[in-house]
Write a structure and sequence with these properties.
With 128 residues, this protein is mostly beta strands. The chain contains no helices and eleven strands. The model has no long low-confidence stretch (mean pLDDT 97).
Length: 128
């Protein structure tokens, strides 16, 4: 079973930066598209960013464009999310997710239903 473990969340002030990491195991990492989603209690899970299996394609949700950057290190089996200029509305639990890519170079899904594996989440709280 694929195992994903997020880390790096915390409490920061508005305008600060955070870097989330997701360590993956029990999979051939470079065969999997990876993504970050976030969720606020009582709301639907929101797409943040996705990256294709070899890292050639990346996509961002509207809230992340221009402030967040997704990256992956296939040798270390890790994916990261660099978050800059954080806002109070970025407060949420952030989840790492994975799905086996149908082929190298394909576009990764941007909806939660497109992913099969999820981490336990890491809390990000941005104070004003």
């Amino acid at each position: 079973q694929v195992h994903l473990v997020e880390s790096g969340g915390g409490l920061v002030q508005a305008g600060a930066s955070l870097r989330l990491s997701c360590a993956a195991s029990r999979l051939t990492f470079n065969n999997y598209d990876m993504a970050w989603f976030r969720q606020v209690l009582g709301k639907e899970r929101e797409f943040v960013a996705a990256i294709s299996s070899l890292g050639s394609l990346s996509y961002y949700g509207d809230s992340a464009k221009g402030r967040f950057a997704i990256a992956r290190d296939n040798a270390k089996m890790m994916v990261s999310l660099q978050m800059d200029r954080l806002k109070p509305e970025d407060t949420a639990v952030y989840y790492c997710s994975a799905v086996r890519s149908p082929r190298y170079g394909s576009r990764p899904p941007t909806e939660a239903g497109g992913y099969d594996y999820w981490g336990q989440g890491t809390q990000v709280t941005v104070s004003s």
